[in-house]
Inverse folding.
């Protein structure tokens, strides 16, 4: 059985960058207030001409360019998103169309902030089973479309963007995705949700969040899944080369650093630049270090999102010296 290795990383951000100081005055907030509570300094917001699909396509093109492979090698596209362009068709099929790919399958995965790891797990299974040889996994969101811009408890937290990785089949199982686990617990569904939906009130709705509960469970699930991943792979916390958590709030990440005992220099934090981009947050963060990450053997991804959903992945990026 082959493994799935990541061979390329790419990202795309909307053209409009909004700093904390540029948010509407009606929110009665400030750069200092937001930064102290979230670690966020700015976010990117999609313009009318930018959509989840257009951002996803741009990120995919950049990932393919980084991987130095043609789109025609791709036989699977999975887009993790909660803010697709349409109810149907799937945003992944729009990416497939725009990349002029006519083979394979394209579909979306909905797990909100955990979506990228869920999609990564699905693609890993496709490749390990031999059903796919080359996959695009994309996290893309335009969360600004579902924010109540009069609610400062939510609207200051989120941003738009897309990140993508290219996976290929690899003969040596010591490289690539070594472990990937996903979880959910629906009894917490009402803690983080939208106020509308197709079969409830026929409205898109706005993001509604019980912030304290989400914070508590995020820290708890991050730590639980990290401990389980380390145990299952006979690793210690000091063996991690890089930890890439979902970029929701710097306070959550700093609490995880405190509890786990990991060296803070090994934890990637990009929330200051992008805010919480939901399913796009982890691949956007990976894109920030794509020039260095292919020398790392133990890279850990952690996510937690609405549902509640959460997940973890252990990836060995250091395949290039072993071709």
């Amino acid at each position: 059985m082959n493994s799935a290795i990541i061979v390329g990383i790419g990202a795309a951000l909307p053209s409009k960058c909004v700093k904390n100081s540029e948010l509407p005055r009606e929110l009665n907030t400030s750069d200092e207030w937001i930064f102290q509570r979230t670690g966020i300094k700015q976010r990117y917001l999609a313009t009318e001409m930018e959509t989840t699909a257009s951002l996803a396509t741009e990120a995919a093109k950049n990932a393919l360019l980084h991987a130095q492979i043609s789109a025609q090698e791709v036989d699977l596209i999975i887009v993790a998103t909660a803010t697709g362009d349409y109810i149907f068709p799937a945003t992944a099929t729009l990416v497939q169309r725009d990349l002029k790919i006519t083979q394979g399958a394209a579909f979306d995965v909905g797990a909100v902030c955990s979506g990228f790891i869920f999609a990564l797990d699905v693609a890993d299974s496709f490749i390990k089973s031999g059903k796919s040889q080359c996959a695009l996994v994309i996290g893309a969101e335009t969360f600004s479309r579902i924010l109540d811009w009069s609610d400062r408890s939510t609207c200051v937290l989120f941003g738009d963007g897309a990140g993508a990785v290219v996976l290929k089949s690899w003969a040596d199982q010591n490289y690539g995705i070594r472990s990937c686990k996903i979880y959910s617990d629906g009894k917490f569904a009402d803690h983080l949700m939208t106020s509308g939906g197709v079969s409830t009130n026929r409205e898109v709705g706005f993001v509604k969040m019980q912030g304290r509960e989400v914070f508590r469970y995020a820290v708890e699930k991050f730590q639980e899944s990290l401990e389980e991943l380390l145990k299952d792979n006979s690793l210690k916390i000091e063996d991690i080369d890089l930890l890439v958590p979902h970029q929701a709030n710097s306070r959550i990440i700093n609490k995880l650093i405190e509890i786990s005992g990991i060296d803070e220099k090994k934890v990637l934090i990009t929330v200051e630049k992008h805010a919480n981009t939901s399913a796009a947050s982890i691949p956007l963060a990976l894109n920030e270090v794509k020039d260095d990450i292919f020398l790392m053997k133990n890279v850990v991804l952690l996510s937690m999102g609405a549902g509640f959903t959460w997940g973890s992945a252990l990836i060995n990026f250091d395949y290039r010296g072993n071709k």
In short: The chain has a mean pLDDT of 97. Residues 172 and 206 are 46 Å apart (CA to CA).
